[in-house]
Each structure stands twice: as structure tokens, then as C-alpha cells.
Design goal:
heterotrimer; A alpha/beta; B mainly alpha; C mainly alpha; B: mainly alpha; two-stranded antiparallel ribbon; 11 helices; globular
Chain lengths: 384, 293, 374
């Protein structure tokens, strides 16, 4: 019995070695890496971004390099919303022969893996990572969305416009996105004359915010700015309402996710957030076609037919990658990186071209609110 | 900090302490009998959370709760039979590694089966009803937790001191070999201990997660360790001690977070452990045992 | 087998390994998976052998490995991140002036210092960890095995909390982690560092100190009666083990290029524990072999078990993300329950394995053993 078990175990350990060769890219095929969290606290958002990329792959399945036409294959690696796993996932993608990597959702993991991509000379295009550090100092990282300093200013402007003179900020320790955005909001808000009455921080994986919220309640703010992950959002909202806090709750782009409405229920009414895309306001024809086609794709994949902004960004990241490959005419890493610095694409979230840091020149944000259990468009903000 | 804020924090702390107390009892009972730190106890508490999610998806809560308790008890007994019983005569390190292994297995199994996306915990509307007393505002579950914990502990102490099984449990924890010689069925005593510990952990998990509203495969690891510290603090082997330990840890954790040192709230628990082990290793209510060579 | 023959075989293998590693270095892009597996495997081998010294040879069940690796990793990282990149890494609160000026000074030193500096950083990391171990060891090593395990686990978490605390933002960058850590030169360098560390530990085990450790493992009271100073020897074992664990941590930081406090959760200790359990608690060669095997298996499994598998158009039902970790845990349980000795048990690998005359001896021993049980 023991011997049989031992043999079985040995087999299980060594059989996968034969799979090693199978994953290498086939002739006539280019591999694009999908570097997204599909599990962990950012799994929800990451999955939506992946859907956008997969849909783009069905709409544009081939790319022309020089004279040859190649099929584009997506290889996905789950970074589990964890910086340590991100390093493994990045190595996996490079080993799979990815020419360009798309992702990640979550600035922290993108920052962590940035070095690895730059070292291997594989350009990476982030769809929704908004922290400046993702592209700063890294020539190989680009992004197709706006940045947190911009987003923080937008939300601060909105708060002051609405007459909220006192604000509380709640951020997640150790999350680059949350802490960065919180800091930018704080700076912009104070510059406009607002008063920050409370600045609290919570730990990753914390689920009980009663102590923090009690302190916030004692400070009596008009608005609470709490940029956090999708997982913690409903907890914060519900526990705040449970403690009797009536202030308006605001956040950044991560909160545009249906699960927050599902989990927080009635308490989510009135939440305000900024985001990248709204299906009621298509920027151009490409966007109109995308909205129609992607809605069908969502329904076919058992998802609600409301288009998440990050999916649109995932789509844009994909087509930007393809445009760069065609522009470069070759598959060499440095050449692709060069092409990306000069590429110009009309995406579904607007025109995309990169500045010297690798950031897309975006100056539009959509402010939405939750009303009657749905995300409702409030206003468009442009900062020149 | 105003008085009502302090009171609100105290309420949160006591509620958290109650949940911790229920879990700590499981640790102390198992250690008393097997001299084993059941690293997997915290993960069983996490699995109970997942069982609840699935049970509530198809049944009303009066049926779901007992079902979850029974399922957790079954899991506890199974764990003991499969992973600890075969190693009873093996060196201490092996059985501890086995406990770590079971903990690891449960976490990875949960990640695989339920994905590591945090799952929303179902709401028992009755328990979540919000009460406002002056400036204080809390849901019913916050008040129910410590009361229930104390009641269950009293019930358990009565059981241990006034029933045949309880006497058997006390005998086995005093001296394993002699109890066996006296004709006590060791296996059933141990299984019974695990069953009770798991049942209490299940109740604790329902109370804990109702407050927190989300479960991930890793929600059980750290509370588990903290509850072990609570058990040591109160005196390992002593059930009232575990309860006191649980409340102490719950209150200090909340106090630290309220004061702004949330990063240290976890570390503090371990500092407490080391201090206790150095100065009073038997804990608050524990008894001194002499080690014969 | 003659002694000269054994020496010859060992030297030949060494030469073969060196040649293979150098050849692999040149073909890094083709064999990327093998490259990463070897590097990570060697780093974990050092950690495993260090843990084995403490748990396997001295019998002290300590679970604090992750904490010491964290200390080694952070010290190495802080000392080696180029001064120009420091402000970028510490972008939230800025970097402490002391670190900035120290790094500015070291960056201006001559080239020979620059090439030696990363290794110096590893050693300094090890020394800092050894210092912590000396301080912690004094109160903690007196405890019984269960309590020692929890106490060291607790210290590991305390160290992690201190590193991640916002109060230390200027030094450790709090919970945001450090990035832009320069990498390990090449495979050969990794191998050399690992070889030196493991050689040192092997020499220690073969010395009188090693014998004292084994005596403590077998029976503490008898060892004390024989005149071995328990407290002092336990301290030695703890401090030396922590030194090498920290060096492994530093190498891990250089391999991963970016670390944060989450990298050093308790799970990392469990990973190393798994390696020494599979390899055999009490066997150095077992730990090394097991480290490479387990790392390889984990990486291969990542690509095999976690992706949906389609055989002839039919999708095998169980394969999706997370499956490999379940298999991994089952493997650990199987080893703990059925193969407590692990791969090599208490024995070490010797060249005698290659002699056919020995095979017949072992077969006879097994049969004789079987007959005795019947």
C-alpha cells in the first residue's frame, strides 16, 4: 500500500515536467501576457479587466508584423493581489514567451513586478493602475488610464463644490493605490480650503472597522473619502451606517463594481465615485461598437450586462499593444518599447498616446453615484 | 476621546472578546487532553464560516445554524481521526507538523473550492437589527456575543464537573496512560473533546462573521493564533481561564486599534504571550505540573 | 568504495555542476523556467539546511524562520538599493537621511568595493539577525517544545509587524515594501554562496558542537548530565541557524527584486518546514535535494495543475487555479502520516549508493526485516 502511494506521489511530482515544452509559443502565434489578479481581494476587478482583454482578443485575433500575419494568444497568470505572487506570475508570463504584458489591476502588484518586466525587456501596459509609481522610472511600463493625482484632485473639487467643508480620509496601509490616492485627495482638498478632521488607516485583510469608524464618527465629517478595494467597500459602508454615520461616502475608480451594490444593499445609496468610462456617454464610434458587442459578451459569460470601466480599459490596453506591434514591425522587446512611446490609438475610452513617463494623456473623469441600486452618471470633469 | 466613544469601543472589544473566548476554549480543551496545539482549529472556524454561507443560501437560519454546528463537529472529529490519531505514539514534532499540515490543507482546500475572493457572509436580519442607546449604536449580535459566550462556558463547566463524560475528560487530561488502564475509552473521549471544541468554534464563527460580513480562506489563521495565546494567558487546560483570556485579548486589540496602533494589535498579542511564558508559564488559572525525569 | 574514488566522484560532480550553470546562464531566455527553479531552489536550500540545523539536529522546534528571513532581506535590500533610486522607492514618506547619506557615501567608493558590497550586505543582514536571535534566544530557549514553537512564531509576527509599522516608514518604507533591489549576478554566484553556507553548516555538524547538538536532541537531561551546557549550546545553534536563515532571506530579496512584509508571512516558514519534512529531518543532503525538488514541483505544477487541461477535446474536471496547492498539502500530509522519515531520514547521501554490491546488501536487509515482522 505504502509503495503504491509512493509511486503515485512520485508520478504526480514529475509528470508535469512533460508539460513544460507544450507551453512554448507555436509558430505563427504571438503570446500576450495577461497579468491580473483573479483571486484575492482585487480578484473581482481583475476578472473584469480580463474579460475586456478576452473580448478584445475575439474582436482582433490577429496582428500583422511586417508581412506576416500572426495569431494572438492570451496567456493568463493570476497574481492573487499579492506582491510576492506577482513576482512568480511575472516570471511565468516571461517563461511563456509573452511579447507584451497587459495589466495589472492594482498598482501595488504592478509596481512589484515592474522590475522583472524591465529586466526581461518585455513592455507592460497597465489598464487601470493609477498610482504614479507604476510608470515612474520604469521605461517599460505604460498605462492607458489617468493618474491618482488627477483623480484625487477631481474628487476634492467635487467635494468642495458640494459644500462639504470637513472630510475624513480612510486608507489601506500597504496598498499603494489606496494610500497614494488618499494622500493626493488630502493635499488637493486642503489646498482648496477644506479641513481634514480625521485620517485613519486600516490593515490589509482587516474586516472589522468599528474602532476606526467610531473615531471617524466622533470627528463628525461631511464626507468620508475611503478609496479601498472592492472587497472592503461593502464592509466599510455597512459598518459605517450601522454605527450611525450619515456622512456621504466617496471613493475612487475601484468602487465601480456591481458587487458593492449587491453586498451593501440599501446602505450603498448615495455613494459617489470617479471612474474612467460610462456606457451612456460613448467617446466615439469605436466605443459605440464596443458597448454593443461587449454587452452581448458579458451576458454570454453569465455577467450582468453593465459594462465596468476597467473592462473598457482592458480592451484599450489590448488594442494599444496590437497597434504598437504593427508599428514596430518586429517582435524585439526594445523595438516594441520604442513603438509604444510613439503609438497613437483611438480607444473606447478616448484617444490614447503616451507621455515621457509612459502615462496616457487623459484629462477626463466621470463622476458617478449609486442611486436606486444602480450606478448613475453625475457629471463629466475635465481638467486642462 | 469622549465617554460615549470609549463606551462604544468597549462594546466592540467585549463582543470581539466573546467570539475569541469561544474559540480559545477549543484550544485549551484539546491541549489539556492531547498536549497538542491544534493549529488547525482556527481554520476549522473559517470552514464553519463557509459552511454557513452555503447553508444559508438554501435554508432559513433556524435550520442552517444547527446544520453548520453539526457539520463543523463532523469536520473536527474527522480531522482528529485522520491526522492526529495515527501519530499518537510518534514524537511531539511529528504531530505538531501534522497539525500545521492540516491547517495548510484546509486553507488551500478553501482557496481551491471557494476561490480566494472574499465571500459575502449571509445576513441574519434578526441579529443585525441595530439598536441605538443614546450615542451608542450597535447591532444585536454585538450584545448577544459575550452573553452567549458566558452562558456556553458555564454550561460546559457544569458538564465537565457533573457528568460521567466530563469526569472521563478530566481523568484523561490528568494522566493519559492511567486513564486507559482504568477502562476509559480514550478514543471516544478524545473525539468528544474535539466535537465540543468544534461546536463552540462554529458558534463563535457565526457570531464573529456576522459582524464582519466577509470570509476569505485566510480569515481563520490569525484569530486562531490569537485565541491560542488567549488560552495560554488564561492557563492552558483551564476553561474559565480561556474565557478570561479571550476577553482580555479582544479588549486590548480593540483598544490598540482605537488608539491608532493597529499595526501592533497583532504583534501585541504575541508580546503578551512571551511575557506570560516568561513570568507565569502556567497562565492566570493554570496549575503547576512537575516534570519527572 | 575507496575514499579516493569518492573524492574523485565529488569533484567530478562539482565540475559538471559549474559547467552546467555557466552554460545555462548564456541560454537564460530559452530555459527561463529551469533558471528560476534553480535559483529559488538553491536559496530555499540554504534556508532549509539552516532550519534543519535547529529543528533536526538540535531538536528545537522553532517556527521563526520567516522573521529572520525578513530581517536579512530588509537589511540587504536597504543596503543595496542604489542611492539614485531611493527617493523613488520611498515615495510615500521619504527616506531617512542616515540611509541616504550612507548610500551616497558607499556609492562613491571604488569599483572593487562595489562588486563586493552585495555580499557584504548579505553578511551584515545575517549579523543583524544573529543579534536579534541572541536577544530573543535567552528567554525563549528555556521553553518546552510546544511553547517554543508558538513563541518563535510569535516573534516572527512581531518582527513583521515592526517592519510594516508606519512609525518606521523612513527606514523600511512601512507596508509599501522595497523595490529596485539589484539582482544576484548569475547562477554561479548563487550556487557559490549557497555552497559556502551549506559547507559551513556541515562542518559545524561534524564538529564537537554538532555532536553536542545531537546529544541535546536525543535526551536533554542526559546531555546535561554529561556536562554539555544546555543554554549555551542551544544559543549557539539558534544564533548560527538564524544567521544563515537571514542570508537566505537576503538572497531571496535579491532574487525577487521587490519585497514587502507580506512576503514573510508564516506561510514561508511552513514552506521551508515542508521541505525539510520531505527531505528528512536530520539530513543535510536530504534538505538540499528536497528543496530543489519541491521548488521544481511547485513551478511546474503552477503551469500544469492550475491551468485547465484538455485531453483529446475533453476537459479534465478538477484542474483550475489553486489545485496545485491542494496537491501540495496532500503531499505534506501523506509524508507526515506515512513517511515520517522523509526522503533520507537521518542519513546523508553518499557515493556508496552507486555500488552494486551494496544494493544486494540492502535488499537482503529489507527482506530480513520483513521476515522478522511476520
Amino acid at each position: 500500500m505504502k509503495k503504491v502511494l509512493a509511486l503515485a506521489l512520485a508520478l504526480v511530482m514529475f509528470l508535469p515536467a512533460f508539460a513544460l515544452g507544450a507551453a512554448a509559443p507555436v509558430d505563427g502565434e504571438i503570446v500576450l501576457g495577461v497579468f491580473e489578479p483573479q483571486t484575492g481581494e482585487n480578484g473581482g476587478g481583475g476578472f473584469q479587466e480580463v474579460l475586456g482583454m478576452r473580448y478584445a482578443n475575439t474582436v482582433y485575433p490577429t496582428v500583422k508584423v511586417g508581412d506576416k500575419v500572426y495569431a494572438v494568444k492570451l496567456v493568463e497568470a493570476d497574481n492573487k493581489s499579492d506582491k510576492t505572487e506577482a513576482v512568480s506570475a511575472a516570471n511565468t508570463l516571461i517563461a511563456a514567451g509573452a511579447k507584451i504584458v497587459l495589466g495589472s489591476y492594482g498598482s501595488g502588484v504592478s509596481i512589484a513586478a515592474g522590475e522583472i518586466f524591465a529586466d526581461a525587456q518585455v513592455p507592460a501596459i497597465a489598464a487601470s493602475a493609477t498610482n504614479p509609481q507604476v510608470t515612474l522610472g520604469n521605461d517599460y511600463y505604460f498605462r492607458v488610464c489617468f493618474l491618482d493625482p488627477f483623480q484625487g484632485t477631481v474628487m476634492a473639487n467635487y467635494a468642495i463644490e458640494k459644500g462639504y467643508k470637513k472630510a475624513a480620509v480612510i486608507t489601506q496601509l500597504g496598498d499603494d493605490y489606496s494610500s497614494g490616492l488618499g494622500a493626493f485627495f488630502l493635499a488637493a482638498y486642503e489646498k482648496l480650503g477644506g479641513v481634514i478632521v480625521s485620517n485613519e488607516q486600516f490593515q490589509t485583510n482587516q474586516t472589522d472597522f468599528k474602532a476606526i469608524l467610531t473615531n471617524v464618527k466622533a470627528a463628525a465629517p461631511d464626507v468620508i473619502f475611503a478609496p479601498s478595494s472592492i472587497a472592503t467597500a461593502p464592509l466599510l459602508i455597512k459598518q459605517a451606517r450601522e454605527l450611525g454615520i450619515t456622512a456621504v461616502i466617496a471613493a475612487g475608480d475601484t468602487w465601480e463594481n456591481g458587487s458593492i451594490i449587491d453586498n451593501a444593499g440599501k446602505d450603498a445609496e448615495g455613494v459617489v465615485l470617479s471612474t474612467f468610462f460610462d456606457e451612456a456617454e460613448p467617446a466615439n464610434d469605436e466605443a459605440k461598437a464596443f458597448i454593443e458587442g461587449f454587452k452581448k459578451y458579458l451576458v454570454a459569460n453569465n455577467q450582468p450586462d453593465v459594462i465596468p470601466a476597467v473592462s473598457a480599459l482592458g480592451f484599450d490596453a489590448y488594442i494599444t499593444a496590437l497597434a504598437a506591434i504593427e508599428k514596430a514591425g518586429t517582435l524585439e522587446g526594445p523595438a516594441l518599447q520604442q513603438a509604444l512611446t510613439q503609438v497613437e490609438v483611438v480607444g473606447v475610452t478616448g484617444a490614447i498616446s503616451f507621455d515621457e513617463n509612459g502615462d496616457a494623456k487623459k484629462d477626463m473623469a466621470f463622476i458617478k453615484t449609486i442611486q436606486d441600486g444602480k450606478f448613475v452618471f453625475l457629471q463629466l470633469v475635465s481638467v486642462k | 476621546m469622549s465617554f460615549s466613544t470609549i463606551l462604544q469601543h468597549a462594546l466592540t472589544g467585549i463582543s470581539l472578546g466573546g467570539a475569541y473566548a469561544l474559540i480559545a476554549i477549543g484550544y485549551t480543551m484539546v491541549y489539556g487532553i492531547l498536549r497538542l496545539i491544534n493549529f488547525a482549529h482556527g481554520d476549522m472556524f473559517m470552514m464553519a464560516g463557509y459552511f454557513m454561507i452555503f447553508a444559508m443560501a438554501s435554508m432559513p437560519w433556524p435550520i442552517a445554524i444547527p446544520l453548520v454546528v453539526i457539520a463543523t463537529m463532523a469536520l473536527g472529529v474527522l480531522m482528529e481521526r485522520a491526522a492526529y490519531a495515527p501519530l499518537r505514539s510518534a514524537p511531539r514534532m511529528s504531530i505538531m507538523i501534522s497539525a500545521i499540515g492540516v491547517s495548510y490543507l484546509l486553507q488551500n482546500l478553501a482557496t481551491y473550492l471557494f476561490t480566494a475572493l472574499p465571500r459575502g457572509y449571509p445576513e441574519i436580519t434578526l441579529l443585525k437589527h441595530i439598536f441605538q442607546i443614546g450615542e451608542l449604536s450597535a447591532s444585536l449580535v454585538t450584545f448577544v456575543t459575550p452573553v452567549l459566550a458566558i452562558l456556553l462556558v458555564l454550561g460546559l463547566v457544569y458538564l465537565i464537573n457533573h457528568s460521567k463524560m466530563g469526569m472521563a475528560m478530566r481523568a484523561v487530561s490528568k494522566d493519559f496512560e492511567t486513564a486507559r488502564l482504568m477502562g476509559i475509552n480514550i478514543n471516544s473521549v478524545i473525539s468528544f473533546t474535539f466535537a465540543i471544541g468544534s461546536a463552540l468554534a462554529a458558534v463563535g464563527s457565526i457570531l464573529y462573521f456576522t459582524d464582519r460580513m466577509s470570509v476569505t480562506p485566510f480569515s481563520g489563521a490569525l484569530p486562531g493564533l490569537k485565541c491560542f495565546v488567549a488560552a495560554v494567558f488564561g492557563g492552558i487546560g483551564s476553561i474559565p481561564g480561556a474565557m478570561v483570556g479571550g476577553f482580555v485579548i479582544g479588549l486590548t486589540e480593540t483598544a490598540l486599534v482605537a488608539l491608532g496602533y493597529s499595526t501592533f494589535s497583532d504583534a501585541f498579542t504575541f508580546i503578551l504571550l512571551i511575557v506570560i511564558l516568561l513570568f507565569k508559564p502556567t497562565g492566570l488559572f493554570g496549575q503547576k505540573t512537575t516534570e519527572k525525569v | 568504495m575507496k575514499k579516493e574514488m569518492k573524492w574523485l566522484l565529488s569533484l567530478a560532480t562539482l565540475a559538471l555542476v559549474v559547467w552546467a550553470l555557466t552554460a545555462l546562464e548564456g541560454r537564460r531566455n530559452e530555459y527561463n523556467m529551469l533558471y528560476t527553479v534553480l535559483q529559488k531552489g538553491m536559496i530555499l536550500a540554504v534556508a532549509a539546511v539552516a532550519m534543519n540545523l535547529l529543528n533536526g539536529f538540535t531538536g528545537l522546534f522553532s517556527l521563526g524562520q520567516a522573521g529572520f528571513m525578513a530581517i536579512g532581506a530588509y537589511v540587504t535590500a536597504i543596503l543595496t538599493i542604489p542611492a539614485t533610486k531611493l527617493p523613488g522607492v520611498y515615495y510615500i514618506s521619504g527616506v531617512s537621511q542616515a540611509i541616504l547619506s550612507f548610500r551616497g557615501w558607499t556609492d562613491s567608493l571604488p569599483d572593487w568595493f562595489q562588486t563586493a558590497f552585495p555580499y557584504l550586505a548579505l553578511i551584515i543582514g545575517g549579523l543583524v539577525a544573529a543579534l536579534f536571535a541572541a536577544l530573543i534566544g535567552y528567554p525563549v530557549l528555556r521553553l518546552k517544545s510546544d511553547y517554543l514553537a508558538i513563541a518563535t512564531l510569535g516573534f516572527s509576527e512581531i518582527i513583521r509587524a515592526i517592519i510594516a509599522s508606519p512609525q518606521l516608514n523612513l527606514i523600511t518604507n512601512g507596508s509599501y515594501g522595497l523595490k529596485s533591489i539589484p539582482k544576484l549576478e548569475n547562477l554561479l554566484v548563487t550556487f557559490l554562496i549557497a555552497a559556502v553556507c551549506i559547507a559551513f553548516i556541515v562542518l559545524l555538524i561534524r564538529s564537537s558542537y554538532g555532536r553536542a547538538f545531537k546529544a541535546i536532541r536525543e535526551d536533554e537531561v542526559a546531555a546535561e548530565a554529561m556536562g554539555i551546557n544546555l543554554a549555551r549550546h542551544k544559543q549557539y545553534s539558534f544564533v548560527i541557524s538564524s544567521f544563515f536563515t537571514a542570508v537566505a532571506g537576503g538572497m531571496l530579496a535579491m532574487y525577487m527584486r521587490s519585497i514587502d512584509s507580506g512576503t514573510f508571512k508564516i506561510g514561508l516558514t511552513y514552506d521551508v518546514l515542508l521541505i525539510i519534512v520531505i527531505g528528512g529531518i536530520g539530513s543535510v543532503t536530504g534538505s538540499v535535494i528536497s528543496a530543489l525538488l519541491v521548488t521544481a514541483a511547485k513551478e511546474w505544477w503552477l503551469r500544469f495543475f492550475d491551468q485547465p487541461l484538455v485531453i483529446a477535446g475533453w476537459e479534465v474536471p478538477l484542474f483550475r487555479t489553486g489545485f496545485r496547492m491542494v496537491i501540495f498539502s496532500l503531499l505534506l500530509m501523506a509524508v507526515v502520516l506515512f513517511y515520517q522519515r522523509g526522503l533520507l531520514g537521518h542519513k546523508e547521501f553518499t557515493w556508496n549508493v552507486l555500488m552494486p554490491s551494496n544494493w544486494r546488501k540492502w535488499l537482503n536487509k529489507k527482506q530480513a526485516g520483513g521476515k522478522r515482522h511476520a
